[in-house]
Design brief:
Blueprint lengths: L14 H24 L1 H9 L6 H30 L2 H18 L8 H27 L2 H4 L5 H32 L4 H26 L14 H11 L5 H32 L3 H29 L1 H21 L3 H29 L5 H29 L4 H7 L1 H11 L4 H10 L1
Helix pairs in contact: 1-5, 1-7, 1-8, 1-10, 2-3, 2-10, 3-5, 3-9, 3-14, 4-5, 4-8, 5-14, 7-8, 7-11, 7-13, 10-11, 10-13, 10-14, 10-16, 11-12, 11-13, 12-13, 12-15, 12-16, 14-15
């Protein structure tokens, strides 16, 4: 725990609490790495959908439905948790639900036909919805743990630790996949086991969080008589007082849309456009996670030093380069360059966004404002992948055009980043 000084933490916060908080990033990263990125996404399109032109679109539709559910419910859940000091209690519930949904995905490769497609989509919707709830709730603990000046370090440490968890889950799954392939076993045999491995690791690591991370908030009388939805409506009406936070949300919708494309469609693009086989794809994603962990660790310190806005702008430029390279290369070696840059940019951009949210959120409304941040990231996760899937379908399966169009999202994110003044936004948050 010597990666950051005690001065980066709020008074009274112990490093073991930060370790417990970071363990949730460690726990849930296996879900995104194995289910959303490396294994189940590619299997859904190539195995369950049998490589049909609508396969990528159906995958993005399932994810978009889950993100729409989260958009409509998470801000109110956050407001409710703030009022009742129940962030940890809700986090336990949504974690159990996500682990169960992930384990249930093991059933889908054993089915065939339209029912298999429908069941796979339904279970992805359920598991990804509860995963998203957990990601938002754990983010809301960050301002209780870190000072404003240390927010980038602690957020980056958490993201970096999370990528280590993703690598562990993927490494275990890769070992089993290689063992299965050496014996001539099909994907329908090894994919279910990878889902069970991911679910088990998620649940086990999350127990460390539940044991070490306390609920520091106290129940509030603020708005208790009007309920969570009314409080949420009041927050939107007061948005002018938090204009820098609102600019950040707009920026997040754009650039996170592009990041969501990389997370949800990297394996599909690698296999169907570049020609990777499943084991090569898993190695690629494993290395991408190493780069992402390094990016999150390094940029966590850098953003506290040079400023959050400037750090985020640098990562968006890197993302634009990733899209241009991926759209133009035709060799596996060329795509490896794009994936490595994407990994570095992914860890740093996600860490920066969470830290900026923590700085601009009023201390009494942390879960609520992180709920609004989740609203933005999930809207982005609809806009990005769904537009990618639609463009791919409309162009007869041309994913190069779809990945090239993703640069528009990162350029828009850069432009919306310009009006943000972090000092002004922090002062507004502290006045709330």
């Amino acid at each position: 725990m010597a990666l950051f000084p005690q001065s980066a933490l709020q008074p009274g916060v112990r490093k073991r609490e930060v370790f417990g908080w970071a363990m949730y990033d460690f726990a849930n990263s296996g879900y995104t790495t194995v289910v959303i990125t490396a294994v189940f996404a590619a299997y859904f399109v190539g195995g369950i959908a049998k490589g049909a032109p609508w396969g990528a679109f159906a995958w993005t539709v399932a994810l978009s439905i889950s993100y729409a559910i989260v958009m409509l419910t998470m801000p109110a859940i956050g407001a409710w948790a703030d009022l009742r000091a129940a962030k940890k209690r809700v986090l336990v519930i949504v974690t159990v639900a996500c682990v169960a949904g992930t384990a249930a995905l093991a059933l889908t490769p054993r089915l065939v036909g339209p029912f298999a497609v429908a069941l796979a989509m339904a279970l992805v919707i359920v598991s990804n919805t509860f995963y998203s709830y957990g990601e938002s709730l754990t983010g809301a603990f960050l301002p209780e743990l870190a000072t404003a000046d240390g927010m980038g370090k602690v957020s980056g440490w958490g993201w970096g630790f999370g990528y280590l968890g993703g690598m562990l889950a993927l490494g275990l799954c890769l070992a089993y996949v290689l063992w299965s392939q050496a014996r001539g076993l099909p994907a329908s045999h090894f994919v279910p086991v990878t889902m069970l491995i991911t679910a088990a690791l998620y649940g086990a690591a999350a127990c460390v969080t539940f044991a070490l991370l306390p609920e520091r908030a106290l129940p509030q009388q603020r708005g208790a008589e009007q309920g969570a939805w009314q409080q949420l409506r009041d927050t939107f009406r007061e948005a002018r007082a938090y204009r820098d936070f609102m600019w950040l949300l707009a920026c997040t919708v754009c650039y996170q849309g592009g990041v969501a494309v990389a997370i949800t469609l990297a394996a599909i693009y690698a296999e169907q456009v570049i020609g990777f086989v499943p084991s090569e794809t898993m190695v690629l994603i494993f290395v991408l996670n190493i780069a992402a962990a390094l990016g999150a660790f390094g940029f966590g310190y850098l953003q506290d030093r040079i400023g959050h806005r400037r750090s985020l702008a640098g990562t968006l430029v890197a993302w634009i380069a990733v899209c241009l390279i991926a759209a133009s290369v035709s060799t596996k070696g060329g795509f490896w360059w794009a994936a490595t840059i994407a990994g570095l940019a992914m860890g740093s951009s996600q860490s920066a966004g969470r830290a900026m949210t923590g700085i601009l959120a009023p201390p009494r409304q942390l879960a609520e404002f992180f709920g609004l941040w989740t609203f933005a990231t999930r809207l982005a996760s609809i806009v990005g992948p769904l537009s990618y899937g639609a463009i791919t379908w409309a162009t007869g399966g041309n994913q190069r055009i779809a990945i090239l169009s993703t640069t528009v999202l990162f350029v828009a994110g850069l432009l919306l980043l310009l009006p943000i003044d972090m000092r002004r936004g922090r002062e507004a948050a502290l006045r709330a």
